[in-house]
Amino acid sequence: RRLYFDTHALVCLLEENGFTTQQSEVIVSALVKIMNTNLDMIYKDMVTKVQQEIALQQVMSHIGGVKKDMIILEKSEFSALRSENEKIKLELQQIKKQVTDEITKVRADNKLNLNLEKSRVKELHAQQDRALTQTDRKIDTEVADLKTMLESHKLDNIKYLAGSVFTCLTVALGFYRLWI
Q1: Could you tell me if 24 and 14 are in contact, meaning their C-beta atoms sit under 8 angstroms apart?
Q2: Rg of the Cα trace of the chain?
């Protein structure tokens, strides 16, 4: 392994600062062991370029497989959506036709009801006109009968009056003859 610092320079530095040669070598040896252990730990987590490229190729192949699966799924989903859309269009057309038929039926029923009501009103007006005409005829007949009866009573009264006048004249002439 390569060390990234000068161990002999570190030993000399430690000796200059009051450590003995043996103490300095032990400290540097401990530092080297610690560094080697740390590097081993770091290297365990690291991969080599070859391993990295293999892993990258594996990931890329998985991505390619997933892409193929997605395309297949997308096509099948698109087909399913298209068929579902067609079904919905057909159902909407059927519902539209049913609604149109119902509207036509309701319109026809309303026109029929309206025509029936018009004919009933016309018939009612005709009945009222007939009843009014009959009432007018009855009134005219009654008035004519009353006029006839009045004329008849007038004639009877004139007859009685004439008869009474002639009777009175006859009686007066009779008395006049008797007195003369």
Answers
A1: yes
A2: 68
